[in-house]
Design a protein that fits this description.
Number of strands: 9
Number of helices: 11
Structural class: alpha+beta
Shape: elongated
Strand content: 25-35%
Largest sheet: 9 strands, antiparallel
Distance between the termini: 10 Å
Helix content: 25-40%
Order of helices and strands: HHHHHHHHEEHHEEEEHEEE
Radius of gyration: 23 Å
Length: 288
């Protein structure tokens, strides 16, 4: 998988002055566009759309060289107008191209990238593959920002605002794995940019038909499919966040599966003091 990802990077480098489509890159990597974008974001630490802006590093050199007009440079690097190029240039370099040329300003550089797998530590990742029939996620939903490190304050406030009775009602809805109250993330952006918003459910997994869902609860119907289930124990929430990262940077490149569209489900059992947790992460997958 890493070899194919690096081939896609080579393709980007050879076409920095052309429009680059995610579908084309995914085809080179021999996977789906959805999985390609997920893998790229996890390995690179940035969404594909941001890395493709590397063309603005090369364009910056042309701006400072002064051999072409700014409009010629804009067209060369795939922008439909000088205004569009100026906006993108300013977003990356913090200065417009005209001012950069006049003042000889220092510009930012996005270095060329390649991927390699580095496995640290000696612990193995515990996982199993599960086939599930259609089910429903039922509970309460909120739109929250994505946070990579530490406690997500929006989620913490959302859960704290629920009454004890609501928690108990949600818990009673659980009738299959993963059992109990779970955290469900859905409608995440493909690039997984920190701060981007997604649907968060504080909910239970149930096989109950749609007409039995309480009217005052939010529900998400999940089609039948295959799931990779990962288990870990450790400090909370650091252990969970590191496991999420390791699934995409270590497990997927080493196994014949790819991620597919669908919610990601987390079951957490906190220790009495709340500092540690046993976690179970469900990721929707399909065979390569």
């Amino acid at each position: 998988m890493l070899e194919q990802l690096n081939q896609a990077l080579e393709h980007i480098e050879g076409r920095l002055d052309q429009r680059i489509e995610g579908e084309e890159l995914a085809r080179l990597a021999m996977t789906s566009e959805y999985h390609f974008r997920r893998m790229f974001s996890a390995l690179a630490g940035m969404p594909l759309s941001e890395y493709v802006r590397r063309r603005l590093t090369v364009a910056g050199a042309d701006v400072l060289a002064g051999e072409r007009t700014l409009l010629e440079i804009a067209v060369r690097y795939g922008y439909t107008s000088g205004e569009a190029f100026a906006r993108a240039f300013r977003a990356m370099h913090g200065i417009g191209p005209g001012e950069a040329r006049r003042t000889g300003a220092a510009l930012r550089s996005q270095p060329r990238m390649s991927f390699r797998l580095v496995v640290e530590g000696s612990s193995s990742m515990r996982y199993r593959i599960v086939e599930k029939e259609e089910f429903r996620v039922v509970g309460r939903k909120a739109r929250v920002p994505l946070v990579y490190e530490g406690v997500n304050p929006a989620i913490a406030a959302f859960i704290k605002g629920m009454g004890k009775e609501t928690h108990q009602r949600i818990h009673r809805l659980s009738d299959q794995q993963p059992e109990g109250i779970v955290s469900v993330s859905d409608q995440l952006s493909e690039g997984r940019e920190e701060g981007s918003e997604f649907d968060y459910y504080h909910a239970a997994v149930t096989g109950a038909p749609a007409h039995e869902v309480p009217e005052d609860m939010d529900a998400l119907t999940v089609p039948a499919g295959t799931w990779a289930v990962f288990e870990d124990s450790g400090p909370f929430p650091q252990s969970l966040q590191h496991m999420w990262r390791d699934v995409f940077t270590q497990w997927f490149p080493s196994n014949p599966y790819r991620s597919r569209r669908g919610p990601e489900i987390l079951r957490t059992e906190l220790s009495q003091e709340g500092a540690r947790a046993d976690v179970e992460l469900w990721i929707p997958v399909e065979r390569d």
